[in-house]
Amino acid sequence: MTHLVEINPQIKLDPQLARKITEAARIALKRISKRKFTLSIAVVSSERIRSLNRQYRDKNKVTDVLSFAGGDLALCLAKARKQAKENKVPLESEVAMLVVHGVLHLFGHDHMKKKDALRMFRLQDKILKKVLGKQLPKTLSFTPE
Questions:
Q1: What are the pLDDT digits (tens) for 38-96?
Q2: For residue 83, is it within any domain?
Q3: Total structural domains in the chain?
Q4: Exposure winner among 39, 90, 104, 119, fewest CB in 10 A?
């Protein structure tokens, strides 16, 4: 089964990074979706994601990724860059993690309760290991040891 992943860059996006976003999304969808799924990923500015966060979550701050019913993600590249630097990981790895995280939210996973967080982050780590093809840096893994 082939999933459709559309990248809609609203800011300048490196083609290699776009490929990593697509790959991360496809691997995540293959792991968790039993049916064909169309995913649209908007790569947006800090200003745009703040606006979306305020509009849909009543939070007036920049966030890294937002998931919307219907198969839409908004990914803030500036926030991802900042987090990659803070976590001392390549930007591609940080972006892949955010895409996987966003896809999991689309399929009903959340991390509001400890039990749910453990389940979500374990699955996120498994998928991310497949995307990156290596052991995860501790700064990308959310699963407690």
A1: 999 999 999 999 999 999 999 999 999 999 998 999 999 999 999 999 999 999 999 99
A2: yes
A3: 1
A4: 90
* Within-domain flag for 144: no
Q: What is the CATH number of the domain that holds 99?
A: 3.40.390.30
Tell me how far apart the alpha carbons of residues 131 and 46 are, in angstroms, rounded to a whole number.
26
Residue in this structure with the two tokens 């976003």, named with its chain if needed: 21
Print the domain residue range for 85: 4-132
Is the pLDDT reported for residue 112 higher than 90? no
> Could you tell me if 96 and 137 are in contact, meaning their C-beta atoms sit under 8 angstroms apart?
no
- Rounded to two decimals, what is the model's pTM? 0.91
CA distance 24 to 63: 19
Determine how many CB atoms are found less than 10 A away from the CB of residue 104. 22
SS (H, E, C) 72-140: EEEEEHHHHHHHHHHHCCCHHHHHHHHHHHHHHHHCCCCCCCHHHHHHHHHHHHHHHHHHHCCCCCCCC
End-to-end CA distance of the chain: 34
